[in-house]
Specification:
single chain; 137 residues; mainly alpha; elongated; transmembrane helix; membrane; Phage holin family protein; Phage_holin_3_6
Length: 137
């Protein structure tokens, strides 16, 4: 089997010594380099399109997750506010048996306003400490 291949190689005619084939011409080199640069540009374009599609897909997945988180956060705030209202009404009903409806309402309203004032003052103090501009000390 190996002998057949060796014989086949020996049977091929060798090029004549008078015929000299040019190894490469400048036109073929220019076309080759031009083709290579064109192929490189096409490959870069395809890579950029693939990267763009990847980041679009990643962003859409992140947006879907963000929407879910915001929806859950909104529902939690609504349920928490509803629970807070129920607590206030429950305390109001309990206190109205001991102090009467007017005094219980005044006590709860005053307490809620006091807590709101304290929390707002804390928020304002912390907001004033925030650096709003990088050049400000």
């Amino acid at each position: 089997m190996l002998d057949d291949k060796i014989v086949a190689i020996k049977d091929q005619p060798s090029p004549d010594e008078d015929e000299v084939l040019p190894a490469h011409t400048s036109d073929s080199d220019d076309k080759s380099i031009t083709d290579q640069v064109g192929n490189l540009v096409d490959d870069v374009r395809k890579l950029a399109e693939a990267e763009l599609e990847y980041y679009r897909t990643k962003l859409s997945v992140n947006m879907a997750a963000t929407k879910t988180v915001l929806l859950l956060f909104s529902v939690a705030i609504i349920v928490g506010a509803t629970g807070l209202v129920a607590l206030i009404l429950g305390i109001l009903l309990i206190l109205s048996h001991y102090w009467g409806p007017v005094a219980a309402t005044a006590l709860l309203t005053g307490s809620a306003l006091l807590v709101t004032t304290v929390l707002l003052n804390m928020a304002i103090k912390r907001a004033r400490k925030l650096p709003l501009d990088e050049n400000d000390p």
